[in-house]
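Hi R.,

Here are the chain sequences for the assembly we discussed:
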Amino acid sequence: MALTVPASSKRVPQPSAEWNGDSGCLVHNLRHKLRHAGLRPTRQRVGLGWLLFARGDRHVTAEMLYEEANRSRVPVSLATVYNTLHQFKEAGLLREVAVDGSRTYFDTNTGDHHHFYIENENQLRDIDGAHIEVGRLPDIPEGMEVSRVDVIVRLRRKIRP
Amino acid sequence: MALTVPASSKRVPQPSAEWNGDSGCLVHNLRHKLRHAGLRPTRQRVGLGWLLFARGDRHVTAEMLYEEANRSRVPVSLATVYNTLHQFKEAGLLREVAVDGSRTYFDTNTGDHHHFYIENENQLRDIDGAHIEVGRLPDIPEGMEVSRVDVIVRLRRKIRP
DNA sequence: ATCATTGCAAACGTTTTGCATTACA
DNA sequence: TGTAATGCAAAACGTTTGCAATGAT
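And here is the predicted structure of the full complex:
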């Protein structure tokens, strides 16, 4: 801690205008959700949850969230960002999306939906589950069951618009 | 070179029974394909191509192919395996498949098809394009065009068979 | 006070790169 | 022979881990 926050004496409650950990119902819900998932609502988890869930559906990588946290004066280490993203995923608050072998994206939308992936821009966009339809599935191998069906519509910019 | 092959004097043509670079029509086709793609049919590229294309559809990672090459007495470095896989991909001989954030898979099947992905076993299996059907696509964003649609059916082993 | 959580730095596995050596055409 | 391709080792990259310090309950 004390990354960008001035080190102070002892137990000084956050006076910051950025996020005080207890101002809105979103934060209340989040703290509740975290407790329910067996996760202590610590400063870092609430801070990251606030960044993730307060502004609609998002697709973030660990690095992106880490930088955003730094900008937003949410003191957190990169290792904790990774840990937290995975804990949130286990808790069902996030979905992991694999579109590109190099980075891992996390999606705050955990509902029924799929993805556009803009190639060369590394950008993800949601496709509502109702706007796409996977007809006929193939036979599932013996002893297996479907965990999930992911559809990724890869897009590229048209050569001449 | 000379990784597992005994170092010899000069310009000894391969006496090996494993792959002599000019024995079958598959190799002929491959050499032709490579030339057509602007890739010199070097020993390593032909050797790797032979491993990749001579035994039906395959899903390999760089590491897997590297180890297989070593076992098959195709002397090649890991860096060259990576380079070659990407060159083959550019040439349209392979397709890159992103299912898991950590490793990159390459698929020798470049036709119309999708994939089963067996979670926890890191195993890929083809689904023929005719056995799956993506009905209704969503509206494509302005100025964009579809490069490809990937469907990944994630499977897990049933709890009780 | 206790124990989960955090931060740091170092380890990790995969992939890429720089450059001298090799080999195809 | 000239130039592309290769091998090696080292760097880069995203991610995970071990352990001492911290903080929530």
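Chain B touches chain A through 42 residues (CB under 8 Å). Residues 1, 11, 40-43, 61-63, 78-79, 82-83, 102-104 of chain B lie near DNA strand C (CB under 10 Å from a C1').

Let me know if anything looks off.

Best,
T.
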